[in-house]
Design goal:
Structural class: alpha/beta
Shape: globular
CATH superfamily of the largest domain: Glutaredoxin
CATH architecture of the largest domain: 3-Layer(aba) Sandwich
CATH class of the largest domain: Alpha Beta
Strand order of the largest sheet: 1-3-2-4-5
Largest sheet: 5 strands, mixed
Length: 279
Amino acid sequence: MTTSEYVFDVRVEEFETRVLAASHERPVMVDFWAAWCEPCKMLTPVLEAVATKHEGAVLVAKVNSDEEPELAAQLGVRSLPTVMLFVEGAIVDRFVGVQSGAAVEQFIAAHLPRASDPQRGAAAALRAQGRNEEAAVLLREAAAAEPDDLQLRADLADLCIDMGRLEEADQLLARLPAAALEDPRFRRLKARALLAELAQAQTGAASAEDPEQLTQTAAIAALRGDHAAALDILMRVLRLAPGYKDGQAQAVIKAIFELLGEHDDLVGRYRRKMASALH
């Protein structure tokens, strides 16, 4: 029994219409739970409160994993509670375990209608045309007018990283409220900023024995999307100098994991390699 009109139970035969189709009109959080799961019971009122607060701008569909095991398995549910966010018929994000109301708000924030949407859309169009300076000006003006709009700050930080304005990006990310650090987008931005700082310091061709140059080369490879090559180079750094700069290689490896996401095959493979190299 739910206390919000925006929270409902859903079975596998209803999933296409009540979740996939509905998510083309507004975001739908799908909460996989079970009656025996105490953390699920703790999360339920948090999700109901968020859905009620937004008055239908986001829905919560609850799936009993014991009654719908095939659906849970099909969507890769391994632990309870698991919450997936569906937008435009696809999973755009997920979390596992009990979260605070503030963390759930951050989880859905990027997908809710906002007053800044026209400015963000215009800035995105300018970026697509290569007019980054104009996009930056627009985003700065919008962020000044809406200082609490974290997605504007994220867009501007993302653009600054692309433009090599790393000091400005760092300042934007450093002023984030603590709850925002639970947002995967901001974690990825911080990871990209770290890689960009290392890549920007690149001074020459990589030496087979120099941890600094190897780490910088790995950062460049990661930024251009060659994650496996970057991780291979960092494994070499761990073998050569595991304590270099207080574990810088491990920090860069974790930044790449953040960009890839926990469910990427490379993450599991190289996490095992890192553990082996360090012990």
